[in-house]
Amino acid sequence: MLQIIYIDEHLVAINKPAGLLVHRTALDAHEQQFALQMLRDQLGRQVWPAHRLDKGTSGLLLFALDAQTASLLGQTFEQGRAHKRYRALVRGWPAESGVIEHPLARDPELPSAGQTMLSARTDWRCLEQIEWPFSVEGRFASSRYALVEACPLTGRRHQIRRHLKHIAHPIIGDTTHGKGAHNRAVAAHLGLNRLWLHGLELRIAHPVSGAPLLLHAPLGEEWQLLKNP
């Protein structure tokens, strides 16, 4: 059963677990479970995804319960009127805060050369510095990581993952844009292998009533592992 964190006659929001696809895709043709199908079966009615999260990303995922609301939600996201907040574990100790305005290729699965470059902006701030007593690549006796909050102001694919890589603080567990040695070391230290990215909050105007709506998907228990020794 998916964790429902909000529902009314027009909308439903869930807290998607890491490792679950939003919908069927040829990129993961072997997968048999999808949030869209599971939620449809759980509610016994049709649902329309308003946005998407990567398979490895956990957190808030919003659906419409009718086609008209789906259309209105689509406009909200396309016009940049949906405000998202994410939590991530990254390599290294970044500065206190920053803004990343680095154009991104439309398709992150293909080489950037020759692709249309799209404007993209992510605001971020460092929440906590972590130092764990293990060495990666033998250069230092300990390894440094940080919890950061990231707020994408645009909605490009893999935007947060690519932007944090761009400033040399890739997300731990990111097998596409991250560092394999750090991914493996942290997974061994914690006894858990996942992409450490979570959609924590979404703020929009309700597409039907216009009332402000603040949705929050709590962090899973595994995030309690991310502490200094």
From TrEMBL:
Alphabetically ordered keywords of this record: Isomerase, tRNA processing
Protein name: tRNA pseudouridine synthase C
Pseudouridine synthase RsuA/RluA-like domain ranges (all copies): 10-166
Recorded catalytic activity of this chain's protein: uridine(65) in tRNA = pseudouridine(65) in tRNA
UniProt EC number: 5.4.99.26
Gene3D superfamilies: Pseudouridine synthase (3.30.2350.10)
Function recorded in the entry: Responsible for synthesis of pseudouridine from uracil-65 in transfer RNAs.
Enzyme class: isomerase
Protein origin, superkingdom: Bacteria
InterPro entries from the UniProt entry: PsdUridine_synth_cat_dom_sf (IPR020103), PsdUridine_synth_RluA-like_CS (IPR006224), PsdUridine_synth_RsuA/RluA (IPR006145), RluA_PseudoU_synthase (IPR050188)
Matches recorded under PROSITE patterns: PSI_RLU
Protein's UniProt keywords contain Cell wall biogenesis/degradation: no
Pfam families: PseudoU_synth_2 (PF00849)
